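re: ur question from earlier - yeah i can do the single chain one, its not a big deal. heres the input i used so u can compare w yours
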Amino acid sequence: MKKSLLALSGVLCAAAMLSVGCKKEQGATGTANAGADANKNLVVWSFTDELEGMINDENFGYKKAHPDMTVEYSLTPTDQFPNKLDPVLASGNGAPDVFALENAFVRKYIEEGPELLLPLDDVYAEVKDKMADYPMQIGSYNGHVYGMAWQVCPGAVFYRRSLAKQILGTDDPAEVQKYMSDLTKFLELAETIKTKTNNTVKIVSTTGDLFMPYKGARKDPWVVNGKLVIDPAMDQYMEMCKVMHDKEYDGRVGQWSEGWFAGMKDALKDDTGKDVKVFSYFLPTWGLHYVLKTNAEGTAGDWAMCQGPAKYYWGGTWIAAYKGTKNPNAAKEMIKYLVSDDGFCEGYAKKTGDTLGNLHTQAAIKDTFSEPFLGGQNHYVEFCEMAKGIDGKLIQGTDQAIEALWNEAVAAYANGEKSKEDALNEFKAQVSTTLGF
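and the output i got, formated as tokens:
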């Protein structure tokens, strides 16, 4: 999604150098009708115009289904949003009724839910059977739901069909997946690509692309019982980056850099100025629409998609409500409508191509897609399948700060600036100093 791209690009760039007309669903207002709020106005804050469109769409938006409600919408840039939201939630003065939370900082607020956020347990109880699992895991804390998301953002590998045929003899996603079904095979494929193309094709443009898949392969979060934990998958990521750099498997550019985008349209050059091609990019759902499609001039139709070596997600937006809102029922109804109403979700999915977290919507539309950019592949049905099994319980409020320091350590080791021991020791010291773990 657009907003996810804007927020996460800043995080990962700095760290790695590295967002139909329809009839309202039967019973959709059950929660709100339990005790209608006298005030018919909701104040909504977000860091993207996406939520505003969901509210105002003339065919299926929230206001279309709730004509008696008025909405005051405020938009603040992503990098400024938490600083605007924090003081009003803490004081209660000027706090919005409903607000969006970006993936990069959602857990920070969810973990403060008992003090700041309106519990959504009753909303979730009504719709739980049709909501995807991992976004609800992320939006819950100590057995209570404080945030709900309308979409899922599973990650995949997007690869060039022509290069796959040249190197592997096939561009069939099921066959290509066999060459990168785990992280060991992915490294073997990197060597195969280098050998067969005389190092003129790189498996990825940057090792930063591999961070999210390795993060998705973890068994433990960063902090366990108040202590910092480096999961084996993160250690393997560190070693993978070193190997890829030393063996020149990647294009040695930064994620979100000019070179990173250049590789999408066959315009990347190596350190010597020689033209090189990029075999694949690791991107989530929104990466197809807002990254590849908008930057792959001349290569459209020459792409395909497969799961890759690990299940992972990247990005997304959750919706929460202020604990002290004077309109709790209306706030809950808005959230419920935007994340679960079947009519709204189907209309929104068809309009935007977003992969919705409503399982009813997934089932209704997933078999109808054919993406010309991917050579006619049905990406939607693949994304719906990839969203299954993602573990949202590993996400913590301190992830963003820890991962920024971690990726600095990885880059220093991979680039030969520090030994692995020195990089790890400095990382641990910085986490201890800044976060107390």
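The chain has two domains: 2-153+314-391, 156-313+395-435. not sure if urs matches, ping me
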